[in-house]
Structure to design on (649 residues):
């Protein structure tokens, strides 16, 4: 009697969250999967079941493959670079340097700025001839670059912006984690004869691993989710050089109105993210938490 | 040869002098306790010796070598931290072996030393566990193991027992003392607990406001406290310290009707008597019982003498009820005289304190 009552209370307390989660997360996922198996309805022609046709199209779609490869390059460069930079910055501002508060703020500013504002600033940096970068490079005879306009450099230019923006955000987590580490641990390591590099490698870094895992998950999600700068700066061009998966989904869904195909692309993106998340929580999590 | 020698050591934080020109020596082997209330500079002194803080001035010599300017790692000492400072990501074995692996000690040697330490501390079944899976006492043992495996001639301990419960604390007290005697090393032990200091140490250095108040054996500190501060810091309950006024034939307790309890001197004095040295008698110092506390093995009776309170500790059950008038007596040798202005001990060195003669 009592337990069943408790079960009812428990379910009722969970209900609001469950309803929200279902309505805005699980149901859309299911609908997307179903939609990906139907053709896109046009005018008087309703959607009809076409099985895996969209997925076959996808396999033969060079833009899809291009966007996937771009996204992989984008993730594999921005994630380690921004995490490494974040850790370096956190170590620096955690040490007793002068003007520490100012430095912290400076590092964090890119995170606070909205991406569209950031895009505007970087547009100026990247502008051919009179942009900041070209002006700085001209004295060395390296001017005249169209950073965003040439397919060799466009993706790299976006990667630089992402690293610049994300590192400050991740730094905050590392800084908080560094301040959690008991100074006695560092002192004990020093007393045992550990040089600063050994203290970092054998004590600080392992103790930061839970933070690194958390930051890495955020970075992975960010690498697939953050496309504001593609919107504001390149629109996927030139020649799909900066086409990222999510931006391609947007284009297919809302520019070409091929919602069925967009649904199929979304399913692939979701599957990829789910796989990564499963790896991170299932495998890495067990190796990283000590308490 | 001395284990540790400290000469006019000073540490300033801005304008505050945490350690104010202290000097002492700890022999080898010897168990020395740095004792004092919080903020007296005992932990700072330990950290200066460890090399975790840099001295403002003074000299630190360890095993005959001046280490004042050396980093902690070059001082050839080990340390047990108050929080144990075990590495949470390493197993017990790796925690203990941390220093050896840093210093590149060969594998076979590591194994030999580990098994020796494990036997010494009874850590056999715990080697694969993480610190978070250990109880407080086990963590304490691991921290000790990490310090002892270095086989340094000097081991520093910073309030290592303060995080343990009372029973475990008593056990570890014996164990640490036993280890020091077995390994014949210098242990410098910081504590604010006078019971720990009294029961473990060969010598106690009692500190106050960055200076050494008294440096002596536990017996010295108990029987010949150098000042009223030492007198009241050592012993539970603390020594009675009473104001005196001149009367015919000497000094009597202020507010009492006599008799004289001390010879008159040139300057105002105070009298110290330990509660356990006072007995109830038919005649002597008149007092009124104010309250009685019973502890089982003994009873502490608070008595009013004039306006001052005296504690009396007697074995067994309480014999008196509050409000009773009684008389107090103590053997002459149990009386300590202190200067009323400086608080320093005034009388000549005491001979052996005689058991109750009242």
């Amino acid at each position: 009697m009592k337990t069943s009552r408790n079960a009812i209370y428990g379910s009722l307390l969970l209900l609001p969250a469950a309803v929200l989660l279902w309505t805005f997360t699980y149901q859309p996922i299911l609908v997307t999967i179903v939609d990906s198996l139907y053709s896109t309805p046009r005018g008087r022609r309703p959607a009809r079941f076409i099985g895996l046709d969209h997925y076959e199209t996808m396999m033969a779609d060079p833009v899809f493959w291009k966007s996937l490869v771009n996204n992989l390059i984008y993730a594999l460069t921005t994630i380690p670079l921004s995490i490494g930079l974040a850790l370096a910055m956190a170590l620096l501002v955690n040490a007793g340097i002068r003007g520490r508060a100012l430095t912290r703020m400076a590092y964090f500013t890119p995170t606070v700025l909205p991406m569209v504002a950031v895009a505007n600033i970087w547009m100026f940096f990247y502008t051919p001839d009179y942009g900041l970068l070209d002006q700085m490079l001209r004295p060395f005879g390296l001017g005249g670059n169209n950073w965003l306009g040439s397919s060799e450099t466009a993706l790299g230019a976006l990667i630089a912006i992402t690293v610049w923006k994300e590192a400050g955000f991740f730094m905050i987590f590392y800084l908080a984690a560094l301040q959690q580490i008991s100074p006695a641990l560092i002192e004990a390591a020093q007393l045992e004869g550990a040089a600063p590099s050994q203290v970092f490698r054998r004590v600080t870094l392992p103790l930061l691993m839970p933070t690194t895992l958390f930051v890495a998950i955020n970075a992975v999600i960010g690498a697939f989710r953050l496309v504001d700068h593609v919107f504001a700066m390149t629109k996927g061009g030139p020649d799909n050089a900066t086409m990222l998966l999510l931006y391609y989904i947007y284009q297919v869904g809302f520019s070409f109105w091929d919602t069925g195909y967009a649904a199929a692309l979304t399913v692939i993106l979701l599957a990829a993210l789910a796989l990564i998340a499963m790896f991170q929580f299932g495998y890495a999590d067990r190796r990283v938490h000590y308490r | 040869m001395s284990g540790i020698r400290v000469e006019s050591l000073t540490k300033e934080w801005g304008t505050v002098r945490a350690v104010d020109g202290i000097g002492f020596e700890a022999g080898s082997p010897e168990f020395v306790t740095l004792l004092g209330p919080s903020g007296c500079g005992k932990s700072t002194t330990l950290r200066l010796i460890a090399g975790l803080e840099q001295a403002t001035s003074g000299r630190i010599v360890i095993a005959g070598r001046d280490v004042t300017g050396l980093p902690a790692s070059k001082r050839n000492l080990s340390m047990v931290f108050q929080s144990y400072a075990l590495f949470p990501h390493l197993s017990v074995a790796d925690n203990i072996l941390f220093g050896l692996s840093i210093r590149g000690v060969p594998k076979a040697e590591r194994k030999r030393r580990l098994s020796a330490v494990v036997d010494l501390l009874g850590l056999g079944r715990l080697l694969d566990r993480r610190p978070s899976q250990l109880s407080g006492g086990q963590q304490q043992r691991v921290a000790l193991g990490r310090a002892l495996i270095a086989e340094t001639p000097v081991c520093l301990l910073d309030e290592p027992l303060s995080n343990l419960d009372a029973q475990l604390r008593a056990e570890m007290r014996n164990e640490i003392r036993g280890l020091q005697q077995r390994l014949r090393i210098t242990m410098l032990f910081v504590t604010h607990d006078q019971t720990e200091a009294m029961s473990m140490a060969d010598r106690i250095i009692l500190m106050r406001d960055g200076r050494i108040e008294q440096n002596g054996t536990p017996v010295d500190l108990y029987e010949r406290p150098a000042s009223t501060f030492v007198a009241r810091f050592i012993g539970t309950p603390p020594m009675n310290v009473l104001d005196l006024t001149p009367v015919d034939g000497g000094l009597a307790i202020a507010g009492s009707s006599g008799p004289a309890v001390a010879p008159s001197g040139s300057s105002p004095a105070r009298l110290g008597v330990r509660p356990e040295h006072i007995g109830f008698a038919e005649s002597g110092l008149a007092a009124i019982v104010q309250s009685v506390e019973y502890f089982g093995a003994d009873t502490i009776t608070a008595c009013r003498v004039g306006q001052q309170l005296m504690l009396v500790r007697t074995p067994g059950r309480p014999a008196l009820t509050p409000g009773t008038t009684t008389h107090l007596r103590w053997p002459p040798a149990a009386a300590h005289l202190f200067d009323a202005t400086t608080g320093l001990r005034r009388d000549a060195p005491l001979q052996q304190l005689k058991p109750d003669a009242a």
